[in-house]
Structure formats: structure tokens, C-alpha cells
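From the pipeline queue, job 12 of 40. The input is one protein chain; the requested action is below.

Action: predict structure.
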Amino acid sequence: MNDFLTKLITILPILFPICGGILVAFYERKGDHRHSFGKGLLITLFIAETCISGLYVFFGAEKLVIFSFTDLVSAVLKKDLFTQIFTVMTSFVFCLTGIYATDYMRHDDMKTEEEQNVKTLAGKTFFCFYLVVWGVLLGLAQAGNLLTFYMFYELMTVTSVVLVVHDMTKEALFAAKKYIYYSIAGASFALFGFAFIAKTTGGSLEFLPGGSLPAVNAESNGIILVSIFLMILGFGAKAGLFPMHGWLPSAHPVAPAPASAVLSSIICKAGVLGIIRVVFFVAGPDLLRGTWVQWTFILIALLTVFMGSMLAYKENVLKKRLAYSTVSQVSYILFGIACLNPVSLFGAILHMIYHACLKTTLFLNAGTVIYSTEKHKCTELCGVGRALPVTLTTFTVASLGLVGIPPVCGFVSKWYLCMGALDMKETVIGYVGISILLISALLTAGYLLSIVVAGFFPGQDVEEFDENLERSGKVKKGMLVVMALLAVTALLLGVFAKIFYNLSFDMIYNLF
């Protein structure tokens, strides 16, 4: 393949959805369907971008300099294992969630001309920024140094806030402000650490396996550790790491279900990817192992796991419960990273992939329930399984996976996380970590499977739902198909987990 074509395949996954979003913003339909925002066009764009992303994974350039600010500072794209994983994961989730959203966002109940115009504009705005965020996330995945990563990271915050504020209610505006404030605070911490590392070491800050920092003397080592910790905390804001988690339970309940799905499953993982890049590609695990940074990171991650699970268990609003669940489950991944050994990192990567699939399913399930029944609280869903059997069945599969029950995919990732914890030299920390993960799993079963049991086996004297909801046309077939595909994917990822081991474990081991 010639050099020009390789460069085109590398840059196209970033540019195509951004240009597609601009096209959607200016797209107009004539005649009786003028209030529709073009379902066929959107699905075509989603599928095309997924195919382009697949081409990049196989044929993209290993390294591409986009432009140079100075002789030493450039915006660089690179391809490695984490780039490929994040690209495939992002495109898979965004494609299926986008297809779901074309039905979810239709608002067929809008009768007047004014209502139709307002909802059509809102729908076009949503899909415009949805596609733009998709492109920015793939740029973030391909970033080859800290500067490029930070540039796309900030762009992601600015563009994704539109998905949160979509409904323009007072609650949505408050949640969007909170999202911006937390994101800016986190980015400031990361930038502060970034500047200190650049000043102290004079390094290029390129992402290199095992760490790119030059050898540092004893005097500067303390500053480097503080800088790395600030960057972990800063990128942890997007990942929902305590105490920077507060935006998640505010943003998810007010955002549309497709926005909540990608916020939880992908955008939170941008923070995880940032921490992976800092720990394994800038600092290097040898620099951090056994230091106060590692122990503090482990402590905060485990605290977040337990706190998120407990708050989810006590929460009654469905989407807010799932938001607290995300706070907990993403910190499973961060705990695996903090253990600083190949087995735990492999478990963390698996859980990053599995959580994306499982939590997308759960948020789309929640969106379907709210869309069709207008019920927002978990205690109002007794008997809903009779009205929405496909929806609650897929919810059940995803819930089992999040708890960690085989053969659904969550079991495998949690197994490797526990094995990685036991591989630590400090066995007490490992046992404490495993204990908290098990307690969290029990709480997860309590706050998710209780909905399943009440939905399918409500007992007597409960509110009756229309048992034909899924067959009446109120729940569109496209929404059901997407949820079913995600549930089947969760099962297949669990059954064929060995494929990930064969493809990636050696490359992960080389980071140590």
C-alpha cells in the first residue's frame, strides 16, 4: 500500500465523522418528511465510519506527524495495541448506539408544527455533535504524545457537553455546568503535571512502551512523582475517580439514553486511557512501583469501587443508579492499572472492553423503559418484564455480566483482576482489594438483579403495564435489535475471551 493511501486511512477515521456531523447540521428534507433528520443518512454515516475505523486498525500508519508547533513539539498520531482496542470499542458502541438513537430521538408524538420544528432542530444538533465526538475520540485514541492527547481530550469535553445539555431543562443546564467544571478542574491538574514533567526532564513526552521519561536524579524524582499523581487525578475526573466523580450522577439522569450510554461506556474510558498512557507510556511502571503514588492510587480506586456500589444500592432513580454503578465499575479498571503487573493490566483492559458493552446495554435498556412507560424509579418497575420482555431479558444478561457471573463476559475480567491483585508482593493489599471487589459484586447483584426479579416476578397488587408495548410499535424494532445484539456480544465476549489473551497478553507483558 502506497504512503499516501496509508496516511489517508490513518487520518480519515478522525475527519470523516466530523465532516459527517457538519453534513447532518445542514441537512434538510423536503415534503411530508421535512421534520425527520434523515435516518437513512445517519445509519449510512455510522456504518461507513465503523468500516473506515476497521481499515485503520489493519492498514493505518504506525506513526504520522500531523503538524509541528516547533522543531521539538509536534502533534503526532501513533498506532499500538491500546489505539486499536479503543478504536474498535468506540466505533462498535457509537455505531450501535447511534442506530438505536435514530429511533429513540424521533419524537413521533409531536403534533404541532412548532413542536416538530423544535424537536427536529434538537435531533440534528444531537447527531451533529454525536458524530463530532466520535471523531474526536478516535483522535484521542491515536494520540502519539501527551500534547496531542491533551489537545483531543479538551476537544472531547467541549463537544460532548452538548450531549448532556440536549433537553435544555434547568436540570440539564446544571448538569452540563457541573460536567464542565469537573472536566476543567481535571484537565488543569493534568496540565499542571504535564508542565512539571516537561520542565524537569526536558523529554519529548512521546508515548513509549515502558515509559518515555529519561533517567531522573534523586532530587527531581519527588517532583516527577507529584506530577504523575496530579495527572492520574486529573484524567481520573473523566473516569469518575473519587473525589472527582460528582458529575456522573448529575449528567446521566438528564441526558438522553444514547448520550448516557456513550458517556458511561466510552467517554469515561478516555480518562482511563489517559491514565494508562501516563503510567505505562510516560512514567513507566518501574518508576511508580512501591511508591506513595501507587499506594494512594490503589486506595482511592478501592474507595471509589466501594462507594459507587453502595450509593448505587441506595439509589432509586434508574439512570442515577446506573451512573453510580459506572463510578464503581470504572474504578475496577483503575485498580487493575494501579496494581502494576501484567495480569492485573490484562484484567483492566478486558474490563474496559466488557464494561463498555455491558453498560451500553443497560443504559439503552433504561432508555427503552423510560421511553415506553415514562417510569424513572426502580420501585415503579414491578411487572415491567411482562410488557417489555426483550428489554428486560437483555437487561438481565448485562446485569449478570456486571456482577461477574459466567458465561457472560464480566466474569473473565474480574478473575484476572483478582489474580493480578494476588500477584502483588504486598499480599495484604491484594487480599483487601479482592475483598472489596467481592463486596462490590454482591452490592451490584443487589441493585441490578432486584430490578430483574421484580420485573419478571412482581407478585400481587402491582401496577399493570400494557403487555403489548414491544409489539404495539411504541418501542421501535431497531431499538430491540440493537439491545439484543449487545446482549449476544456480551455472551460471545465471555465465551471466547481466550482470543484477547492470545492477541494481546505478550504485548502487555512487554510494557513491564
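Job complete. The beta strands are 63-68, 74-78.
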